[in-house]
Each structure stands twice: as C-alpha cells, then as structure tokens.
Amino acid sequence: MHRRNFGRLLAAGALLFATTAAVVPATAQAQTGKTIVGGFDVGPGGFQGNFNPLTATAGFTWLNTYFEPLVIYTSDLSKLTGALASEFALGQDNLTYTFKLAETNWHDGTPFTSADVKFTLELAKNAESGSIFAARLADIASVETPDAHTAVVKLSKPNSAFLSVLSQLMMLPQQALSSANVKEIAKSQWWSTKPIGTGPFKFVKHVSDQYVEMAAYDGYRGGKPKADRLINRYFANPAAAVAALRAGEIQFTFAEPDDAKTFKGNGSFRVIEGDSYVVNYIGFNQRAGIWDDLRVRQAVMYAIDRNAIVSSLFGGAAKLANCGYVAPQLVGKDLADYAYNPQKAKDLLAEAGWEKVNGSKPIPWLTYYNTPQVANVMAAVQAMLAQVGVNVVPRALDVPSYNGIVRSEKWQDFPLVYAGLQNGPNPGSLNVGLNAAQTPPSGNNIMRVEMPALTDALNTAMAETDPAKADGRWQKVCKEMNAALPWAPMWVASRYGVVSSKLKDFFWTPAPGGGPYVSHPEKWDLAP
C-alpha cells in the first residue's frame, strides 16, 4: 500500500475511538532522604491501581519492589534463577520440584517459611480466590513442607512451563491472609492498605488515582536499599508521564517510540530500547458466532497491510508475526505469510456468506492499550477492514474494565479485541491464552478458543521436558496457529523506557507484563 493511500485510510479510519480520561496527579512529596519517583505503571507493562498479584496480568516491575516470587528471570530474560528460593531442582521423575528457601522475614518481622509457600500455591490454585493462576497450577498434586526451609511440589504430569508460571506468582503471607474468606479475598482492602511482602521496600500508602508510596525495608536480606523511598506516580497516558520526566518530577517512565526518539543524544537522559516479547493480535471471540468460518478469519488477515502499518506507525520498530512466536527456533518453515491482498479478502468473505453472517453491522473492537500510537494503528486497521466489508468500531478501556468484560460471560460485548500475549522467554506462556482448558474463570483463554488440534499440540509441547525436542513441539503449535487462526497475529513491537541520568544503577527491560525479572531495586540510587 502506498504511503499516500495509507494516510488517507488512517484519516478516514479515525472514528469513534473512545478513551478513558484520568487526571494527572501532583507529584507526591518526599518526607525524608532520597526519594525515587517513576511512572512504573505507564504503558503496556503497567497495571495501574492493581495491588493483588493473584489477579495481575502486568505491573510486575512495581509489584516486585515489595512482593517476591520463588524464582525469577535474569535481567536479560535468558534463564530462571532463585528469588525466595535459594535453590531449586527437578527430580528424575520430571514431576517433583524441591525448593530450598532463603532465610528472610516478612515486613512485619515474621519469618518466611515453607508454610507460606504451601499457603500461596493452594490459594493461587483455587479459582474461587479470583486467581488467574488456577488453571496454570492445576497440575499440582501436592505441596509438602518437610521443614521450614524446604518446600516440595509434586505435579500430576510433566509441565515444562511450571517454573515460568512460578516466576509471576508472588509469595503471600499466611499469617495475614489465612483467615480471610477465599471468595472475598480478591476484593479485600488489604492489598491496597497494608500488604506485607519480603522485598526491599515496604508499603506506606496509596492515594487513589495519584500514587503509591514505599519505604526502604532495613531488614532486607540483600542489604538496606540505597533509596529511602519509592513512589509510583500514576499518569493518564505516556505523554503526560514524558512531560513530568522532562520537568524533573519523575526519574523514569515508559515512552512511546516517537517520544523516546526525542531524548536520544540528550545527556540528561538514557533511552532503553528492547523487544517487547509480546505478540499483538486481533482476537476473535470464538463464541460470538461471526468468526466460525475459517475463511472469515483468513479474510481479516489478508485485508490488513501489516507492512505499511509497521513502516508508517511503528517506524519499522516491529516484526511481523504469523503465529504466536517470532523467535526463529519456534517458528519453523512453510507458514502462510498472509501478505496484503484485499481482493482475496473480499473473495473469501463472499465465499463464507459474510453478508448473511454479519454484513456491515458494527462490530465492537475492544482494547486496553490507551496510547496515541495504538489509536492510530486501530484506526488504520479499521479503515482497511472497511474496504473489504468488515465494519469494526474501536474502543479503548482501562485495564480493570477490559479484564472485567473479557473474563465475564458477556460474549456479546466483545466479539473482537486488540491485545497482546507474551511469546517469550518461555513459549509455554501462550498456553494460557489458547488451551481449551484455560478458559475463564480458571485461565486466561479470553477468546474461548476450543480447537482440539491446537490444544493437543499445546499439551504435547507443555509435557516435553527434553530441551532437544522442545523447539520442534513448539513449531507444531506455531504451525497450527498459523493454519487455524484462533487469533489474527500482527506483530511484535519494540518498547522504550527513558531514565533520568540522575537515577543510578537502575535496570529496566521491556519484559512481558513488566516481568518480573532481576532488577535489584535495593541498588537503585539517586544522584544529587
């Protein structure tokens, strides 16, 4: 598609894109000592206002400053290492995981023990708690606690993604939560008023729609943090956060690509660029009734000039995806590339009887991405789909509202979404969004995908614990996704963070959902 025509489509498609507004709060004032202020929940890796790690799908960059998991990815996302587990090992049966626990305390002074591990795993496995981990932890057969510093988890079948799942499961204090009603725990005020963790910072206060404040935990096993306080300031959008960064009100934020470029060459800031590890996709609600015919889903793919969008709206900073992966070892060969072909899209829709199925009826298209770039992307896609006879109406929601809709029984409210799901560092992460066993409320298969061949491929890959065979198993998952199109995969974009040069020893990576990963918040320091 020529750039001139693309521009016309973009202008024509900028219709009915509703976004939620928020007031940018005033900067929270530090009481004493060094205070680091950041927009830690700005952008796709953030989850503003969420404090319950059992329900969090993002925001781990911030959550991991006061909660900690048993295991965690290294800062380059290449492998798992110990966090609250000082050692961990898988037995020869490929079913038994043994965790040796670090000697540390909760912020209230209570020792962290294997009883907390057992409590957390059992709570997270219980769907009544509102946990998004319930289906992912369904293979746990038992959790044994032979002593205070040893936890043994036995699975009912091999699960190659188990440790990766644990990397996002924050350990919770049994002494604080064991008496709570499981069915009401997700809505408890405890999470936002007096949560207790084991991390380098402890909770101070939350001012609704403005900020969250933490104070250094002097008893942290990794040493007393260099900063006295951390503040996570809330922003309505990335542009507002960037303005605060330029004004010196904060020291870090996620930034849109166009904004990030304006900081390059400026010695007062450092720009961090990296792969998002997230495949953006157009998700077809499989129970909406209008996407049942594969030819309709194929038509959506052929109708979108993905190369033009990547070139014009991402500035080339994205890779096309033809399944849920882009890593070469997982993609394999002989995939359909769904190159832009609007005439083929029209022909497929005609063959599928689209006029009778839906015709020109408006199709609500939801997203939780609330940025100008995504607004432009969705407007461009809207215009392209309109050219072949598919009328979508984009609408952006805040994350809690979006999650509330797509995880509910209101099928009619979301026949289509624009979303993202991590494709790395562990390929098993896609299982939660595609396996038929992972439909809500137990899992995160929000599109209610029930494709037997795809589920079989996922189950086979998930059970493969031999690294030499694993890539081939995941290639079959990719091939099945490419052929059956449970989603319309789009691209994997680069992401950007901008850091003030005054912030020292600070590490951030555009990890899926914000991580977690080894970032050592206790080492973050602020120069005068």
TrEMBL record:
The keyword Transport applies. Residues 1-30 form the signal peptide. Pfam families: SBP_bac_5. Residues 80-426 form the Solute-binding protein family domain. This is Putative binding-protein-dependent transport periplasmic protein. Keywords: Plasmid, Signal, Transport. It is found in: Periplasm. Belongs to the bacterial solute-binding protein 5 family. It comes from the Bacteria. SUPFAM superfamilies: Periplasmic binding protein-like II (SSF53850). InterPro entries: Peptide/Ni-bd, SBP_5, SBP_5_dom. GO terms for biological process: peptide transport. The keyword Signal applies. One of its GO terms (cellular component) is ATP-binding cassette (ABC) transporter complex. GO terms for molecular function: peptide transmembrane transporter activity.
